[in-house]
Amino acid sequence: MSRHTRLRFLLEKEIKDLFRDRKAILTTILLPLISLPTIGIFTIFLTSQQPVNIALIDEDNSYYVNPELNVAMSSDWVVGNLTLAFTSRGYNVAKFLSRSEALENSSIDLIIVIPAGFARNATAIDSVGQVEILRRANVQPALNAEGIARGILNAISVNLSHVKIARLYEKTGLEPNLLKPEAFRNPVVSGPTVLLSPEGEKVGVEAELRSFIARLLVLAFAFVVTPASTYVIDGIIGERQRKTLELLLASPASLGEILTAKIIVATILGLLASLADITALLAYVGSLNLAFGGRSLIILDPGLLILHSVTSFFTILVTIAIATPFITRTRGIRSAGNLASLITSVAIIFFFLGFFIDFPKLEANVLSLLQIIPYTQSVLSVQNYIYGRPDLSIINLLVLAVLSTIILLIAVKTVDKEKILLTQD
Amino acid sequence: MTKPLLEVRSIRKTYGGKILAVDNLSFHVMEGEIYGLIGPNGAGKTTSLRIIAGLIKPDAGEVLMQGVNVHENLKNNRKIIGYLPEEANTYPLLTGMEHLKIYGGLYGASEEDLEFGAKITGLGSRLFEKTSGYSHGMKRRLLLGAVLMTKPRLAILDEPTSGLDVHASVSVRKTIRDYVKTTGAAAIVSSHNMLEIEYLCDRIGLIFKGRIVEEGRPRELIEKYSVSNLEEVFTLLVKGAES
User: Fold this and answer.
1) pLDDT at A11 over 80
2) Number of other residues whose CB lies within 10 A of the CB of residue B124
3) What's the pLDDT score for residue A335?
């Protein structure tokens, strides 16, 4: 009876025991697949269901033509443009006679006031026409409406300034065709940003999106470690509590073989959960992105996804390997869960850091220090790939694989069968 | 004179260096013999059985199986020692037959062994159902079949009829007797049920505070203490040991 044959039977037991537990599979794999896209759909739906009430107050109510420049402006025209922009986007717009009337109405989220003298000031050569915007704090859709109002007012301002510049230019008697109003409006401008790859080649905005997805994938490691450690806790402490462990320990299977089977199945479960989480996360971000007028996320790199899956596998393995010796020494599921949470918290901190910080850009001495923690390799593996260094990415992956195997071997060798059996729940 | 199959020599075990569970315990079991280990709660029965099964190492003393130290040769001894713990349970989502196949697989059981195990369980077609629907008695019979199917030379059975009704207990007792009779193997049975021990065991050892305080054939002990049954022997001995 070889070690492999025993391991095969132990794996058969673990796989059947786990995959027949439909509730466990449902909560671990299907739930994230359903819940995150559902959040996305509900966010889109409910956002469209939030009415935003806007009050427009025209205190100026005038049409004015500047006699020097022969430039005209009407406050009513500005109100008309704003009304059209808002109503076409589904906002509720009402015209109020006074701002006090609008302020007293608690259902109003955004107040736009065109003060007296606006048309005169806007067309003058020594003043500006100012529009007042009052927004109720902490109302997100009102913030979006404010953005629209500012966009419309900016367009009006650009057009008006072009006319004013043209009229002034006419008075100089210079060659009419030479005028470029932008030379007066924005004499100093910064050009559009040119995005470069790590190799210095020009790339499109997709590269930035790809980098964002990579950050999301680093963050997704956080989802990977929890279900796997939960399964190991259940596999060891739960089996002791359910009184199935002793019979297994008395069999010719060694403790190492028993733990190895549990760890392999926990890793498979963790990997499945991570795939479900990543799919759901991308669907969620993608749906939100599309809903708010962004681009499609269908620019996923298959190489990156494969790398992420393999890295996930070893990330889970290293987490379980670290957690196992502690789990086996605890008294019950609760304390084992607390200990595992402590370990997974360290992992999660690293993955959150990886979302915000580019590890390959860290100072060498800081990075060397961080590399004591195996999760640094998980983050580096994905980030180096994005930085166009797949060679370094593979090295990080190999280091992680070696580390997880060494820690796993130490874990299995140091676990005491007697302690597992005799610890009182 | 034939050599004993199992020799327990002066084993001692403390937990956390303070609680003395087994204290200088010695006894032996011959081939084809059923040895009963009886004693009050906390006397050290389960610890002793776990030490013999190789699950726990003694602090001192040794356990010899066919003359070989169990703890120094665990791999080989695991194949010839079967152990049924007192509170063993089944995996609810696995069928009875899957239990036999998996446990059998760990021992290298043949198809013939599986059939033997299935026969011991007496569960018939219900072996193909998940054990979540089994009664306590059915689970106990299934695990007994799993332990005995590979025909261990020594079967260690901790409270094999614990929690079973009369009918199931009779069935389990008969299975143990038949097993020893047909295979020539030996068994150690611990129990609180004195009638069971009297019926089942060839010899018994009364364990108290981790020591064997009396040993012999049930009938001999009843005569020695001039009482009518083993229960009275037990009561007398425990009272005596306590005083």
Assistant:
1) yes
2) 10
3) 80
Put simply, whether B242 touches A (Cβ < 8 Å) is no
Mean pLDDT for chain A? 86
ipTM value of the model?
Answer: 0.92
**Amino acid (one-letter) located at B23:** D
Enumerate residues 8 to 37 of chain A having a beta carbon within 8 A of any beta carbon in chain B: 8-10, 12-13, 16-17, 20-21
Residue A55 C-alpha from the chain's centroid: 35
The CA distance from A230 to A270, in Å, is: 10
User: How many CB atoms within 10 Å of residue A141?
Assistant: 16
Tallying the residues shown for chain B, one arrives at 243
Q: Which of B106, B113, B149, B162 would best serve as a mutation to test chain A binding (most A beta carbons within 10 A)?
A: B106
Q: Do B78 and A250 touch (CB under 8 A)?
A: yes
pLDDT tens for residues B137-195?
A: 999 999 999 999 989 999 999 999 887 888 888 988 999 999 999 999 999 999 888 88
Count of CB atoms within 10 A of residue B220's CB? Answer: 12
**Better-predicted residue by pLDDT, A250 or A292:** A250
Least CA distance to A258: which residue of chain B?
Answer: B106
Tell me which chain B residues have a C-beta less than 8 angstroms from the C-beta of A5.
105, 108
pTM for this entry:
0.75
pLDDT at A28 over 60: yes
- At residue A29, the 3 state secondary structure works out as helix
B181-198: string of b/e by CB count within 10 Å (b at 16+)?
Answer: eebebbbbbbbebbebbb
Chain-chain contact of A12 with B107 (C-beta, under 8 angstroms): no
Could you tell me what percent of chain A has a pLDDT over 70?
Answer: 95
pLDDT tier for residue B221 given thresholds of 50, 70 and 90: very high
Nearest CA in chain A to B77: A252
- The reply to whether residue B50 touches residue A253, judged by beta carbons under 8 angstroms, is no
Cα gap B80→A225, rounded to integer Å? 40
Asked if B179 and B211 touch (Cβ cutoff 8 Å), the reply is no
Highest-confidence range of A25-29, A249-253, A300-304, by mean pLDDT? A249-253
- What is the sign, positive or negative, of the torsion defined by CA atoms of A369, A374, A379, A383? positive
Closest residue by Cα to residue B36 from B174, B241, B212, B170? B212
Quote the CA–CA distance of A111 and A95 in Å, as a whole number: 10
- Mapped onto helix, strand or coil, the DSSP state of residue B29 is strand
Cα-based angle A417, A420, A421 (whole degrees, multiple of 5): 85
pLDDT digits (tens, 9 = 90+) for B35-51: 999 988 888 999 999 99
Amino acid identity, position B6 = L
Residues 6+ positions from B213 with CB-CB distance below 8 Å: B206, B207, B237, B241
Residue B219, pLDDT score: 92
How many Å lie between the alpha carbon of A22 and the closest alpha carbon of chain B?
Answer: 10
Please count the other Cβ atoms lying within 10 Å of the Cβ belonging to residue A226: 21
Query: Among A23, A110, A114, A127, which residue's Cα sits nearest to residue A69?
Result: A127
List chain B residues with CB under 8 Å of A244: 88-91
Q: Is the pLDDT of residue A288 over 90?
A: no
Contacts of B157 (CB under 8 A, 6+ apart): B84, B144, B147, B176, B187, B188, B189, B190
Contact status, residue B46 vs residue B190, Cβ threshold 8 Å:
yes
Instruction: Give chain B positions within 8 Å (CB) of A16.
Output: 91, 93-94, 98
Helices (H), chain B: 45-52, 74-80, 96-107, 111-121, 136-148, 166-183, 194-200, 218-224, 230-242
